[in-house]
Known about the structure:
Elements: H1 8-34, E1 40-41, H2 51-54, E2 59-64, E3 70-78, E4 84-86, E5 91-93, E6 100-101, H3 104-112, H4 121-145, H5 152-157, H6 178-184, E7 192-199, E8 204-208, H7 212-219, E9 224-227, H8 232-237, H9 239-246, E10 250-262, E11 268-270, E12 276-280, E13 285-286, E14 289-290, H10 295-307, H11 309-318, E15 322-324, E16 329-333, H12 341-351, E17 353-357, H13 361-367, E18 370-371, H14 372-375, H15 387-397, H16 401-427, E19 429-430, E20 438-442, E21 448-453, E22 460-461, H17 476-481, H18 486-510, H19 514-532, H20 539-545, E23 550-553, H21 555-560, E24 570-573
Parallel strand pairs: 15-21
Antiparallel strand pairs: 1-2, 2-3, 3-4, 3-5, 5-6, 7-9, 7-10, 8-16, 10-11, 11-12, 12-17, 13-14, 16-17, 18-20, 19-22, 20-21, 23-24
Amino acid sequence: MIRVARSPYERTLDGEAQRHAIDCLLNCYLREYALPRGEASLDSRAPDLPMSLRHAEGRCVGIRLADGSRLALLADRASVLGRCRFVSPPYFKGHDQGWRPLDATELARLLLAPLNGPERHGELLEQIDNSLRITRAFLTHARAANHDQADTLLRSEQGQVWGHALHPTPKSRDGVSEADLLACSPEVGAQFPLHWFRVDPALIRHQGDDPRGLLARIAGADDLYPCHPWEVSRLLADPLVRRVRDLGLLEYLGPQGLALYPTSSVRTLYHPALSHFLKFSIHVRLTNCVRKNAWYELDSAVALTGLLGPLMRELTDSQPGFALMPEPAASTLDLSAHGSAEEAREVTECFGILYRQNLDAASRARYQPRVAMALFTWTLDGISACQAPVAHCAAQLGVDQAEAALRWLRAYAGLLLGGSLHCLFRHGVALEPHLQNTLLGFDAQGLPCRVWVRDLEGTKLVPEHWPAERLAHLDARTRASLYYDADKAWKRVAYCSLVNNLGEAVFHLADGDVALEERLWREIADLLEARRAPLGDPRALRELCAGAPLPSKENFMTRLLMKADREAGYTALPNPLTATCHGECR
C-alpha cells in the first residue's frame, strides 16, 4: 500500500482532533468513573513518571486502571470539579513495560476494557472514531469558513467546532456521507435550501398556530411541504410515501426556496428574516440520540407552550431578563388514510416540524445574543472564547479582568439561576438550561442582561404541581412524556444549570486561576443562598448549600449502555459551593 505524505498543516489538524477527542474521553472517564472510585489523582507525584512530564509546567494527572496498569498525562489546569485541559498525550505503562504514548483510539479501547457491557464496546468505539474523523473534517473547513457573519446569534450557532466538552462522541453523526455532512453542518458555515413536496392540502396537519404562511414564504409557493436534506432519501424510499405519490397526492420537487442556516443542534434551522426557527426530523444519531421528532414530541411541545403561557407572562415581572422561547406550532403530513397506523406514524415523524419563536430583529440588534456553548469553549487558537468579551467588559467598566469576570458571572448566574429555580420550585417546571439551550444577551457595557432558555422537548413537569387533570386533554403517551418526579426534575435542573452550564462558565472564566475560580464559585454560592427564602427554602436547595453533592449526568455510561437520554444516571460530584459559603449556608 502506498502511503501519501501529509502536509504539516494536515498533521496539525490531525493533532488538534486527537487532542480534543482525548480531552473528552478522559474528562468523561475521570468524572464518571475514576475520580468517584479514588482511582485518579489530579496532582500525581509518582517517582517514575515519563521523562517528558517530570519537569514540565502544569499538573500531572495519574489514573490507575483495573489491572494495575497506569495512565499519566499533563494538564495545564484542573478545576475543583475535576475538569481538566490536557496538554500532553496520555502515556500508558503496563506491567513490566515502559511508558508509551497512546492515540485516541488506543485510549478508548483501554478505558472501555474493564467496563460493563463489552458487547456494546464496538458501537461506542465506532462512534468515537466517527466523532474524531468528523472533527478533523470540520477543522479543515471551519478555518476556511471563518464564520464572519455580522449576526452574533448566527455566528455563535455556527462557531461550535468542538461541541460538548464532557461527551465521549461530541461530533458523531452516524449514517451521513461527508458531502452531505459538509453541506448541512453548522460548524462549516453551511446554508442550504429545503427539499419540497407538492402536497394535497388535505394531507397537511398542524397544531397550534398555522405555519403554512411561513412555509409558503420559504418555498415561494403555496401547498408545498419541506423536509431536511438528510431525511429526503428515507422518505422517498418509504412504501407509504411511494403509494401516495403514485396516487398523485404527493409530488417530490427537490431543493428550492430560501436557504436556511443550521444551528448548533444541527437539525434546527434559522434565518434572520424569519419569525421562527424550524426544528426538523433527521434519523441521524447526534451524540446520544437519534434526532427525530417523535409524534408525541410534536404534541408535547405545542401543549407545553399553551400550558406555560401564564408562566411565561409572569416571568416578565417576577424574573426580569429571563424568558422561555415558545414553540407555538407543529406540523406534519397525515397519510393514515392510505396505510396502516404504524406506516403512517413513521411518515408523520419523518415529516414532523416544530416551530420555535425567533428573537425579533430589534432584540437581536440591541442585545447581540449568543449561545452559551459558544462562549464557554475553546477558540480554534486554543483560547477560552469568553476571554475576549470579558476583556471588552473590563475596558468598559474600568476594572481588571478578574473583577470583570466576577461581575460578568454574577450577572449571568443571577439571571440563569433566578429563572430556572423559580420555574422549578414555584411552578413545578423543570427546564433544561444546558449550554446549548441557553442564549445570552448583553448590555452596553458587555454584561449579561438577558437569558433565554429554549427547546421545550427537554422541559418536564413535576406531578405535585401538575396533577393529571390539568393535562387531561392530552394523549396518554404525550402526558407521560411530560412528567419527571421531583427528584429527577431537581437533578436535571441542577446538572444543566450548575454543572453543564455554570461549571463550564467558571472553568473558562477562571482561565486556570485557582483563586479566581474559588471567588467565582463563591458568587454562585451567595446567589443560591439569597434565593432560598424567596423560594420557600426548598429542601433540595437547602441541602445543596449545606454541602450535598452536585449531580452530573453520565454521558459516557449512558452512551456505553445504550440508554435513552431521559434514563441517564448521575454521578455525585464534590460540592464546590460549601467551601466558599460564608458560614450562613447551613
